[in-house]
Amino acid sequence: MAQSATGVLAPEMQTARHPARWRQRDIGAVLFDLDGTLLDTVGDIALALNRSLAERDIPAIDLDVVRTMIGRGAPMLINRTFERNGRSVDESDRAAIFQRFLHHYADLHERHESTAEAFPHVGVALRRLRESGLRLAVVTNKHRSLAVRSLEHTGLIDVFEHVIGGDTCERRKPDPQPLQHACALLGVPTSHAIMIGDSMNDVSAARGADMPVLCVPYGYNEGHDPRSLPADQIIESFAELPPLLLGQ
Predict the structure, then answer these.
(1) Does 210 participate in catalysis according to the annotation?
(2) DSSP secondary structure string, the chain?
(3) pTM of the model
(4) Domain 11-40+116-246 and domain 42-110 have a common topology
(5) CA-CA distance, 34 to 73, in Å (whole number)?
(6) Model confidence over 162-199: pLDDT tens digits?
């Protein structure tokens, strides 16, 4: 019997009650990126980053600039921050700043300061897919504990059976390993899964796992236009997803 991301048994997720298909391919599971796909979290990311930088007297990064730097997880964000400031940083300093970033991000939730919110139509679409019996999981490069916090804050945590974070597997997206791991946990072959994302990392990971990938046009994608991604299809909003997969 499967478990949700919170560890609650979820027998209703076991068998699809409505057949899902994508271009003649049976679909049993849908995997989702988090930041820029399900949730707009740039405010939380920027605040946690800048609080970490302030502790070292490093200038803050504007929110709009942070938006263009998001992708491949917080360690990469920290690297890009130092590159932007023309500073070098050794591995121990980078690790220390990363730990402070994790602390400040979690602290936003402890203090109820998080501004993260789901993009339009996300909640309704996810629940429609779950009601159909599809297996749902999040696959993100964000540290798993932070991803769970964001999903709890937005009231979406119980929709998912599993949350795969950047620290869950040995490798992160764009490597396909996290997607393959999610499918193994869900008991669904990768050939019967589909990825929903907003970046080249998601597209590359899906291609490596031999699964189709749909992308939204409003995500972060490391500052590049998501519409330029070589996805199987761009969906304008999550309102399109249930009809696309369920034919309803």
Answers:
(1) no
(2) --B-TTS-B-GGGSS-SS-EEETTEEE-EEEE--BTTTEE-HHHHHHHHHHHHHTTTPPP--HHHHHHH--S-HHHHHHHHHHHTT----HHHHHHHHHHHHHHHHHHHHTT----EEPTTHHHHHHHHHHTT-EEEEE-SS-HHHHHHHHHHTT-GGG-SEEE-TTTSSS-TTSSHHHHHHHHHHT--GGGEEEEESSHHHHHHHHHTT--EEE-TTS-GGGS-GGGS--SEE-SSGGGHHHHHH--
(3) 0.90
(4) no
(5) 11
(6) 999 999 999 999 999 999 999 999 999 999 999 999 99
- Per-residue tokens: 167: 């620290």
User: Is the CATH number of domain 11-40+116-246 3.30.110.70?
Assistant: no
The fold of the 42-110 domain, in CATH, is: DNA polymerase; domain 1 (1.10.150)
- The strand pairing partners of 82, in sequence order, are none
For the chain, give every domain's residue range.
11-40+116-246, 42-110
Rounded distance between C-alpha atoms, residue 199 and residue 180, angstroms: 18
Please list, in sequence order, all residues whose beta carbon lies within 8 angstroms of the beta carbon of residue 170, skipping any fewer than 6 positions away: 177
Catalytic residue among 26, 33, 35, 93: 33
* Segment 43-66, tens digit of pLDDT: 999 999 999 999 988 889 999 999
For 111, the token pair is 């203090």
Among candidate residues 66, 34, 46, 71, the one with its CA nearest the CA of residue 154: 34
